[in-house]
Design a protein that fits this description.
Layout: H1 2-40, H2 45-48, H3 58-83, H4 88-112, H5 116-139, H6 145-164
Amino acid sequence: MAGRDTFQLRFVAVAASAAVLIFLVSCQVAEASRMMNLCSHTSYPSLCRPLVKRVTSPRRATHRTIQALEAKTKLALAEAARFKSGNQAIATCYATLSDAVYNLASARKSIRKRNVMGINTFLTAVVSDYGACVDAFIETNQVNTVQNVAVDLRKISSNCLTLSTLIR
């Protein structure tokens, strides 16, 4: 009889462990699917995923993306500063990147204030800033590193604007 009780106890322990394991795996799958759902709303999900890794809140995802954009824009601004004299497209890009840095900082402040309308307004301006930079190169038929970075920044900012529209 003792053998039967031990078997039942082991069976219950194994069943309980399996239930806990299944629960933990399903939680991780649900979290991954929420993250994927955030990025699935964007135009460039492959650029979104690395920036919002393990984030399920649209507010936090937007904030992280803004921070990444600020850092990348400051690097692009430094690169544009090196070549802006004598190249009108890069000079235009330098000016619009400077505007983008200001608009990103304002968008980040709007997130802290929970001002969704302000976030969307500033991020729309950021998308326009990057677009103006890219357009300056298109008009002059130039291709260079500053233009390539501006194209990526425009895509990421478009994703960021989309994420901000998911904030409630």
